[in-house]
Design brief:
There is one protein chain. By secondary structure, the chain is of the alpha+beta class. Helix content is about 35%, strand content about 25%. It has a single domain (about 5-140, about 190-315), classed as (Glycosyl)asparaginase (Glutamine Phosphoribosylpyrophosphate, subunit 1, domain 1), CATH 3.60.20. Strand 13 and strand 14 (about 320-325) form a beta hairpin.
């Protein structure tokens, strides 16, 4: 019997001007989700059950960019994506392009458990959801007033708006700020980055690792765009050594297969979890901006990011618990 550990995140790339009340609201939600996970682990739920349970809670709350409160496409609709992975035997499931599934992470779990495939998208994923009897809602359920306003701002700026919750200082100047931003994605200028994807990683008492990630993507993204969150090995990865969930600049995470890299350097370079996380953040992002949370089979927990901040929280069986932003 080993020791359990859990970590959650609500996105990397926090605006330095984020209001204090927004920070505290995020911390309360992360603490609440940690408490749910801790209670489940003490009740001997498996790691894969716990990551699904916690991410469902994050998807249900509109604070972060997943499930209800997801970022909007350039057409003003929601296209959500999620993935989940069970370390033992590296079983996995992923979904993209969801517009009516209330909890995308649970549909990803069903793809893993109830289908012969690992990844379903758009109409195929929606049809599978109906056959599985998951809870469906109108697309309007996911759309919030804040996001409608931020999509308008993004369209006025003619930009993918990454910091979709908090406008740059002086809303009237947001368009100019976006145009002048030194940040780029695939060579194109973007605005300040703060996507607020959610994720959870867990190792249970049996040393089983699991990971899950869920997101609405980017505000004002092209319809049909798929990011790193549903891509196994990029946004999510779990094996017999560790579980990893990533957040940040999706295209950079995809190029670096960031989540898998943590397990790879542990396996092939013999690094421990903390060393592995530090190594991939420093050496694998190629000027991209991202963060990740991770657990190891030995009950270790770690996080790393090269952004101004990352909404995150973690806890271990020995009583350690921490929630932070910066």
């Amino acid at each position: 019997m080993g020791a359990w550990a859990i970590a959650v995140h609500g996105g990397a790339g926090v605006d330095p001007n984020l209001p204090k009340e927004r920070q505290e609201e995020a911390k309360r939600l992360l603490t609440h989700c940690l408490d749910i996970g801790i209670s489940a682990l003490r009740s001997n739920l498996t790691a894969i059950d716990v990551v699904e349970l916690v991410v469902r809670e994050l998807e249900t709350d509109p604070l972060f960019n997943s499930g209800r409160g997801s970022a909007l496409t350039d057409n003003g609709t929601v296209e959500m994506e999620a993935s989940i992975m069970d370390g033992p035997k590296r079983r996995c499931g992923a979904v993209s392009g969801l517009s009516t599934v209330k909890n995308p992470v649970s549909l990803a779990r069903l793809v893993m458990d109830k289908s012969p495939h690992s990844y379903l998208a758009f109409s195929g994923a929606e049809d599978f959801a109906k056959k599985q009897g998951v809870e469906l809602v109108d697309n309007e359920y996911f759309i919030t007033g804040d996001n409608v306003g931020m999509l308008k701002l993004a369209k006025e700026a003619n930009s993918i708006l990454f910091d979709y919750r908090i406008p740059t200082v002086g809303t009237c100047g947001a368009g100019a700020a976006a145009m002048e931003s030194p940040l780029q994605m695939n060579g194109l200028p973007i605005s300040v980055y703060a996507p607020e994807t959610v994720g959870c990683v867990v190792v249970d008492k049996e040393g089983r690792c699991a990971a899950a990630t869920s997101t609405g993507g980017l505000m004002n993204k092209m319809t049909g765009r798929i990011g790193d969150s549903p891509l196994i090995g990029s946004g999510t990865y779990a094996c017999d050594l560790c579980g990893v969930s990533c957040t940040g600049e999706g295209e950079a995470i995809i190029r670096s297969t960031l989540a898998r890299e943590v397990g790879a350097v542990m396996e092939y370079k013999g690094l421990n979890l903390h060393e592995a996380v530090d190594f991939v953040i420093k050496n694998r992002l190629d000027e991209g901006k991202a963060g990740l949370i991770a657990v190891s089979k030995n009950g270790e927990v770690a996080c790393g990011f090269n952004t101004t901040g990352m909404f995150r929280g973690c806890a271990t069986e020995d009583g350690f618990m921490e929630v932070g932003v910066w």
